[in-house]
Design a protein that fits this description.
Strand order of the largest sheet: 1-3-2
Distance between the termini: 45 Å
Helix content: 55-70%
Largest sheet: 3 strands, antiparallel
Structural class: mainly alpha
Number of domains: 1
Strand content: 5-15%
Shape: elongated
Number of helices: 6
Radius of gyration: 18 Å
């Protein structure tokens, strides 16, 4: 994919995910379906010929690894700041909170800081690093929310507070 298509994909995925996170959604537990978006993003990232700057491979790989590790941390924060509850029928629901919004803002700040650091070091960064980081944050967030949903105790017909 060319860079314009990658940028459009990134904007579409972020818009889709943000819209879904801040509205109440039932957690289905269908892990295969939850892996589709991160898998597609990772596939596109690895197809990007500029994932690693050939002129600065060591620095570029270091920044990529740091980016992914930080995004995994953001994914954990995002997953643990998502509100999860059971309804009267026992269905599990999730919805982003103000803390989730703070995690999203943190993710943007991390991405901008890494881009500034990369630019200061003369490392050319492509959209591949962003796609791979976005895949990592979505994968970790989904795993955390799924785990929390499975661990949620049944309400036994009593509506959840809050």
């Amino acid at each position: 994919m060319n860079s314009t298509a990658n940028v459009a994909l990134i904007i579409a995925v972020v818009g889709y995910v943000v819209a879904r996170q801040f509205s109440a959604r039932q957690v289905t537990g269908d892990t295969r379906r939850m892996l589709i978006i991160p898998a597609v993003l990772a596939f596109l990232a690895f197809r990007d010929h500029h994932l690693v700057d050939r002129a600065h491979p060591g620095t570029s790989m270091t920044l990529l690894v740091i980016s992914i590790v930080l995004e995994v941390g953001v994914g954990f924060a995002w997953g643990f700041t998502t509100r999860i509850w059971r309804d009267e029928s026992g269905g599990v629901w999730s919805k982003g909170t103000k803390a989730t919004l703070a995690a999203w803002i943190g993710m943007v700040v991390v991405r901008v800081l890494l881009a500034v650091i990369g630019s200061a070091l003369g490392v050319a960064t492509g959209q591949g690093a962003l796609l791979l980081s976005l895949a990592a944050v979505l994968l970790v967030r989904t795993a955390v929310v799924s785990w929390r949903a499975r661990e949620l105790q049944p309400s036994y017909g009593v509506p959840a507070a809050g």
